């Protein structure tokens, strides 16, 4: 009898062409499939919860796969980490019900977009933050963020290329915080459109720069047109923090340590 | 008339063979010399305060050079950063008295050694922390650290290859703190022997693992023999935070933002 195993996965997205397998470069999904197939001696194809873009990082992306292995579920992480490169680490492996699918299970996803806001870039955080030397007005960004919380049609905040039928989504929380030189946009929701977090971040940055008023965000939502929102902020600032499955078929996941 | 210019420099040491120019690979000193010579149109050879090892990072290393340029001293940083690669950034440029030499001026240097202490590595901080899965006893490390503060002969904590005549140094502060999964060993002193901070860190890690008692550090100091101390901890965990020049010939430097 096969078992369904859930993996919680952290990665540095810098050198990957995103999560999803594609022809033009190496991806996180591909690296995990290869390592898992080697470890278990079966051909494994994982199903991921979030297909992060090229250059985007994760502390807790989630994937599942089916296997006949006799390795205890919680031990798979150890064997897998010995085969994976240093920039991908499985944080947890566990058995889940066979009907559990991370893309269709009810869940809250949390992302953080980090901005380094100071006179000069800081080399040791260059890969995980978006550098802006122009001082940002955090209070204005917080005001603007408030308009986005709740259920809205986020069509203005979505790149073409998304495959979903409706662009209505619910943002359950959206906070902007500053600590030292780092401004963090932390957003949680039940689902996100293609590039949605990066377009929200790009729009909030323009509010912080004074190019837009906080109130203008309300108008952008109403326009339902991508051209009215700000630019798509660069991928390096974005990290998928974790996915909290809210259904009864799964328990709340550990998001893993944060730095 | 020439001027003496002081640079405060941050870098990610990952891909460099350390600070000092050598034949076998690229170094931070070499990159700055090339960029400065190109910017100013004169051949520049900087004099650095701290010759950090391969893989060691800095938020605030210091170097000086002499120039006839008409570029205002504080503007040199902007021009230089446009020529430097993304993993080296000048945080400040300023004119200093002509007799100021960063290696001989009285100064307190501060280093941090960061340990990631959790079950699995975290990809996004792998380049800037040393990963240890075995839980460390931070309290024991703090007790051990107390023995090292003050003026001592640190011969046991020095690798061969150092060029100094005496191995007596003064540690003005040595703190061990844990925040989340990160243990930080923060050490300040008037000067350090070759590999001294990494050998102190390697020894404190062994105390944290229970291989040594805190009290044994006193014995290690008294032995004045490298073989009695712990191993040299890996370079990636080490960052030169800043150098505080204490003489009257220079003011306290800004250490730059920390993450």
From TrEMBL, chains A, B:
GO terms for biological process: tRNA pseudouridine synthesis. Keywords: Isomerase, tRNA processing. Its EC number is 5.4.99.12. CDD domains: PseudoU_synth_EcTruA. Belongs to the tRNA pseudouridine synthase TruA family. One of its GO terms (molecular function) is RNA binding. Substrate binds at residue 111. This is tRNA pseudouridine synthase A. Homodimer. It comes from the Bacteria. Residues 9-104, 144-245 form the Pseudouridine synthase I TruA alpha/beta domain. The active site is at 53 (nucleophile). Formation of pseudouridine at positions 38, 39 and 40 in the anticodon stem and loop of transfer RNAs. InterPro entries: PsdUridine_synth_cat_dom_sf, PsdUridine_synth_TruA, PsdUridine_synth_TruA_a/b_dom, PsdUridine_synth_TruA_C, TruA/RsuA/RluB/E/F_N. Gene3D superfamilies: Pseudouridine synthase I, catalytic domain, C-terminal subdomain, Pseudouridine synthase I, catalytic domain, N-terminal subdomain. Pfam families: PseudoU_synth_1. It catalyses: uridine(38/39/40) in tRNA = pseudouridine(38/39/40) in tRNA. The keyword tRNA processing applies.
